Amino acid sequence: MSVFNNLPVAPSAAKKPVTDIRHGIVRTDDYAWMRADNWQAMFKDPSLLDPELRRHLEAENAYMEAAMADTKDLQKALFAEMKGRIKEDDSSIPMKDGPYAYGTAFVTGGEQPRYFRIPRDADHKDEAIRKLLLDGDKEAAGKDYFRLAGIDHSSDHAFGIWGYDDKGSEYFTLRVRNLETGEDLADVIENTGGGGAWAPDGKSFFYTLQDENHRPSKVFHHIVGQPQSADRLVYEEEDPGFFMSVGGSLLDDFIYIDIHDHETSEYYILSTKDLTAEPRLVAKRVEGVEYSMTEGGDVFYILTNDGGAKDFKIMEAPVEAPGKENWKEVVPHEPGRLILSHMAFARHLVWLERRDGLPVIMIRDRKSGEAHAIAFAEEAYSLGLQGAAEYDTDVIRFSYSSMTTPSQLFDYNMATRERVLLKTQEVPSGHDPDDYVTRRVFAEAHDGEKVPVTLLYRKDTKLDGSAPCLLYGYGAYGITIPAGFNTNCLSLADRGFVYAIAHIRGGKDKGFSWYEDGKMEKKVNTFKDFISAADYLVKEGFTSYDRIIAEGGSAGGMLMGAVANMAPEKFAGIIAAVPFVDVLNTMLDDTLPLTPPEWPEWGNPIESEEEYRWIAAYSPYDNVGEKPYPPILALSGLTDPRVTYWEPTKWVARLREKTTGEAPILLKTNMAAGHGGKSGRFQRLEEVAFEYAFAIKVAGKM
After folding, report:
1. Cα separation, 304 vs 182, whole angstroms
2. Which of 284, 307, 314, 487 is the most exposed place for a label (fewest CB within 10 A)?
3. What is the pLDDT of residue 1?
4. Which helix (H) or strand (E) segment is 73 a member of?
5. Could you tell me which of 434, 432, 442, 437 has the C-alpha nearest to residue 467?
6. pLDDT at residue 677, as a whole number
């Protein structure tokens, strides 16, 4: 029996067929008109949206509201629960840097963070001594959307660069603030990537500029007090297939220009001894070779997969001659031990690695070469490596949590191996870890691979197939979804749900090969792994097919679209947040922000017929068929530059046209936000409550 009753007539999108011929293959797209030709301008000024499109999106929102009207009280209850688990006046443990320690705090009822500093060794709990540097709530006042890019202080601690995006389009504006007076200078830097890297003298900084297609294609040097028009162009990346960022070093000796796509890297460095010099190439880009750098005094430490080191190794090179010909191995490649990131300090080299799906922090004494690990014993857990803001230190900071264990923050002395617990995440409404179970199980995939699945449920949940399940997946770009503490999903567990994360191929959960086996021509493994996870959960009695709600966002939204086409009968409902579902059309449009950089992940259908056919075989929009689809909720952001609003809009129109079932296909478009949804911490909880209300409704648990 349907849980959606007495719905109004769903919006019916106009068909305006457009025919495309590539590699001799003819394809017709009835909804291509939904792609706004003025998207670049509209992202900066949403009022420029075509009136016909606006009317259609508003009609979709009205239909969605009608379908979800009976969940209003449930949404309020979920929001109250989630908010009750957050310490509203929480603050971080400040990080020491020179004469000060810098931190963030929230006030009761506040949506945005406040940035503050205190004297280095002062008591951080004494709010009277906090110097307020930036009040996010004050800056966000009167704006429908506001996202801070944080504040970066200069080495002399006199000034800070802070950035904001007030459209959701990820075009950030930078300002320069006098940290003593709290006043902003006249400097206004528009259309940036969101941050800057200070020169050591605190009189200038470097930043990336987004071009008309929303790509960070240029690095500029800005001198404080001068107009943006006077900024010097330091580097321009001609290849639209590469991302770019700029950053500084803990020693203030170099500015790094990091150029990369999903499989190839290149670095330029600029010595801060001569800010007018041309940046120096470290190692020329070679397709498939990745590397990243960190400072080490007289050497650089370089994390790379060069020479067939699939799971990465760490090299060192002299500062004066860092070219590849001078790289010397420090931490060798070890198959199955994936090194994720690294950082260096005066006496220690630190890296985060993953073995058997679990993270480990490794510490190596730079003088003796002796190494030791920071590890934990739970079946599934998450580690976060924050490091330190200073180079000459023996103390680093890291966090630990699991699905049942609230986050714990530690300072760790790398020399004495002393671990000091600084803070445990508070859950004001109460949380007893013993009430819950977290497990790591393995589902057998179609080809015999074992897919890790992390589970959370209450101890009193019956595992006889009667429990509803929210099954989450991502599976792209090598991103691993951590098995960390998430207070929101407790609202599902407390209602008898099994909350599951499928660590499918396309991520690096089981090493780099796990990523390779879920991209390009092997992308279908990602989708099959997710379906295998669902099959396993049913087989083992954790749930049943008519109780599984699948969820994924962005590239995980592509996953949702693919499994909806492949196995709609195995899911009671599907939540697809900002879903990348119009894959073929997007990869054929090289003017879109992410298209050229994404070709190494999905394939280039413009140049290659073979790669065209790979994508065409699974692209969710292109493979919608005449079959009964389960209830589907798609969520979109009007100014989203990553997954443009027209992708889910077109997908929903085609699903609604093709489905042979009665289940509703819903689209919720946030008309004042982008890829990440609303920006405030409680606003975001409202969105999660809405998604969970859909899952609970579909599961028949209202």
Report:
1. 42
2. 284
3. 53
4. helix 72-84
5. 437
6. 65
Q: What is the predicted pLDDT for the residue at 666?
A: 98
Q: What angle do CA 241, 247, 248 make, to 5 degrees?
A: 155
Spatial distance between the Cα atoms of 338 and 340, rounded to a whole number of angstroms: 6
Residues 493, 694: Cα–Cα separation, whole Å: 15
- DSSP code of 547? G
Tokens of 57: 């999106």
Active site residues: 554, 640, 675
Q: In this structure, what token pair is assigned to residue 663? A: 């289940």
Residue 483 has which token pair? 């098995």
Classified as helix, coil or strand, 691 is: helix
In 99-176, which residue ranges form alpha helices assigned H by DSSP?
Answer: 136-140
Q: Are the C-beta atoms of 65 and 668 separated by less than 8 Å?
A: no
Distance of alpha carbon 562 from alpha carbon 116, whole angstroms? 46
Question: DSSP letter string over 32-50?
Answer: GGGS-TTHHHHHH-GGGS-
Indicate the pTM of the whole model.
0.92
Largest CA distance in the chain: 73
3-state class (DSSP) for residue 535: helix
Mean pLDDT by 10 residues, the chain (702 residues): 87 96 97 91 88 96 97 98 96 96 96 96 90 96 92 97 91 96 97 94 96 88 98 96 94 97 95 96 97 97 97 98 98 96 98 91 97 87 95 98 95 97 96 95 98 97 98 96 94 98 96 95 98 98 98 97 98 97 96 88 97 98 98 93 91 98 96 72 93 97 86
Token pair of 271 as six digits: 């010595």
Residues near 345 by Cβ (< 8 Å), separated by ≥ 6? 250, 387, 388, 390, 391, 392, 393, 394, 396, 414
- The tokens describing 442, both together, are 């393995």
- Angstrom distance (rounded) from CA 401 to CA 359: 11
Return the number of other C-beta atoms located less than 10 Å from residue 486's C-beta.
Answer: 17
312 neighbors 303 (Cβ within 8 angstroms): yes
Can you read off the two tokens belonging to residue 367?
């003088």
Tokens of 391: 């180079």
By C-alpha distance, which of 363, 542, 366 is closest to 443?
542
